[in-house]
Amino acid sequence: FATRTDQGEVIFSETQKRRIINIDETNLSLDGSDGGHGGSLMCGSNAAGEAMPLHVMFSSKAEEENMAVKLSWVAGLPTVSGLFGHDEVQTFPASVTVNEKGGTDARVLRQVLMHYMATLFPDAADVDGKRVLIKIDGGPGRLDVQSLAELRALGCYLFPGVQNTTQITQETDQNYGLFKSLLRQYVQVVLKEQYTQFKRRQQ
């Protein structure tokens, strides 16, 4: 993931920086509370500063074979633009998955990471200059042997952090901490407004 100069200095080119990814999962509460019902977000960036496509995980009480994504859930979600492993700048849409808890398990994490590799790094391979490093917070599915083997075959190296230490070891917690706070405040404002309108209709 780096190059050593003739003088022995280790450097990261812009191309190499685009292949070093840092993603973090954060709670997405739809009731305004921290840890409330709703789902979670997967977001982050690469070392070159390109934003990762947003991934949203919704919770559902339906049986797994009946879980589905409504078009209205996806409409309006932001897109991102970047190079990543492409020769020209591309635009990438957000993606959505559904499971019981609205967070990552081994199945969902594999889907997300394989989606990233297919869309962002179609040129990836387990050779110098083509590998991809993904740093991620600790949690379910991070050490799933089958997923790790499949990713390694594609040239992707997963680097999970120690669980429950992300406030110190995960850069995305520092980079997006303000965003998380503002998002929760905005949800509170929207919910209060909806509740006020509901009470007015009841009068």
How much of the sequence is in beta strands? Answer: 15-25%
Helical residue percent?
25-40%
Q: Could you tell me the radius of gyration in angstroms? A: 19 Å
Question: For the largest beta sheet, what order do the strands appear in spatially?
Answer: 8-5-4-3-9-10
Estimate the mean pLDDT confidence: 83
Protein described:
- This protein has 203 residues and is of the alpha/beta class.
- The chain is built from seven helices and ten strands.
- A six-stranded mixed beta sheet has the order 8-5-4-3-9-10, sandwiched between helices.
- Strand 3 (20-29) and strand 4 form a beta hairpin.
- The longest helix has 26 residues, at 177-202.
- The chain is elongated and about 80 Å long.
- The mean pLDDT is 83.
Summarize the helices and strands and which ones pair or pack.
Blueprint: E1 3-4, E2 10-11, H1 14-17, E3 20-29, E4 38-46, E5 55-59, H2 71-74, E6 80-82, E7 90-92, E8 95-99, H3 106-120, E9 132-136, H4 145-153, E10 156-160, H5 166-169, H6 171-175, H7 177-202
Parallel strand pairs: 3-9, 5-8, 9-10
Antiparallel strand pairs: 1-2, 3-4, 4-5, 6-7
